[in-house]
Write a structure and sequence with these properties.
Length: 305
């Protein structure tokens, strides 16, 4: 009898310590009305629901003339956590809110200007190791990857170099100052490479320089690897993109930790753990590149004539 009573008390204590209240308040601040935010939100909400979280969501879209309205809404709802999407919303929330945990997502780390010790999140910086592994899988004959970078992307250069060395690949890259040097610098490294990858660097890569590189790599049978499906649709052989639903799940994992009582200060910053890739088989055929059946099957999009 006493054993049964003890077991019952233990079960009640365990459930009380591991269950959440029926409803949590979550405030969401978006930088804009981007469609991809919906994919992230879907992944986030699905993850929380799957983990037994019943939540009420208050959603606001940032604009300069709505700053007071957003802060008033947050004060009114007194949320358990704030989720900020995009660097505009993130910097606004980090600057103005310090008494509520903040989880940020859908931004690059370098774009977070306003720091807040009560915040953490998931950034869009693509892990170099994932990118190089995909290149090696899609183009198994590639030995030397080329790129051009500036001081703005020197950290990314270092990470890619490290990943290439770990996978026994060469990385031949040249540092330049501006986009005006793209053509000359590319011509210098072109004889030494059999693949060219674009890095995150708005100082160098724009519509004009991308168009030049698409034509130059096609002419010399060197596959170009871009940073979104825009590139494959423009003629690149391959491009990466994010699994936005999984980014939502990663964001939801941070939110769940907060709701369990953890502080943002003890939660490490996360980067995407999955990357998708896109292929353009028409461009590949012009370079006599053939993809394996597995590579084609696993591609998120295959462009064909």
């Amino acid at each position: 009898m006493f054993k049964d009573i003890f077991a019952s008390l233990f079960l009640i204590t365990f459930l009380a310590s591991n269950c959440f209240s029926a409803d949590k308040n979550i405030s969401i601040v978006l930088s804009s009305q981007k469609g991809i935010y919906n994919e992230v939100l879907s992944g986030l909400e699905g993850f929380l629901k799957g983990n037994g979280i019943s939540a009420s969501y208050s959603q606001q879209i940032y604009s300069d003339d709505r700053k007071k309205d957003i802060l008033d809404d947050i004060e009114k709802n007194n949320p358990d956590v704030i989720i900020a999407f995009g660097h505009v919303a993130i910097n606004f929330v980090n600057k103005n809110i310090n008494n509520i945990p903040v989880i940020y997502t859908m931004t690059f780390l370098q774009d977070i200007v306003e720091k807040n010790p009560n915040s953490t999140g998931v950034v869009l910086d693509m892990p170099a190791e994932l990118r190089i592994k995909i290149i090696k899988k899609v183009f198994p004959s590639v030995k030397n990857i080329g790129s051009l970078y500036s001081t703005s992307s020197s950290k990314e250069y270092a990470n890619i170099l490290k990943s290439c060395k770990a996978l026994n690949l060469g990385f031949i890259a040249k540092e330049i100052i501006s986009s005006n040097e793209i053509s000359g610098a590319y011509a210098e490294i072109e004889p030494k490479i059999d693949c060219f990858m674009i890095v995150f660097d708005t100082k160098l890569y724009n519509v004009q320089t991308t168009k030049y590189l698409l034509l130059a790599t096609l002419k010399n049978n060197i596959p170009l690897v871009g940073l979104s499906s825009f590139y494959t649709r423009a003629g690149a052989v391959m491009a990466y993109d994010y699994d936005y639903s999984d980014i939502g799940i990663q964001t939801g994992m941070k939110v769940l930790d907060i709701l369990k009582g953890k502080s943002p200060s003890v939660l490490e910053l996360s980067m995407p753990r999955k990357l998708l890739y896109f292929l353009n088989t028409d461009s590949a055929k012009k370079m006599n590149i053939e993809f394996s059946a597995d590579v084609l099957k696993e591609a998120s999009e295959v462009l064909r004539n």
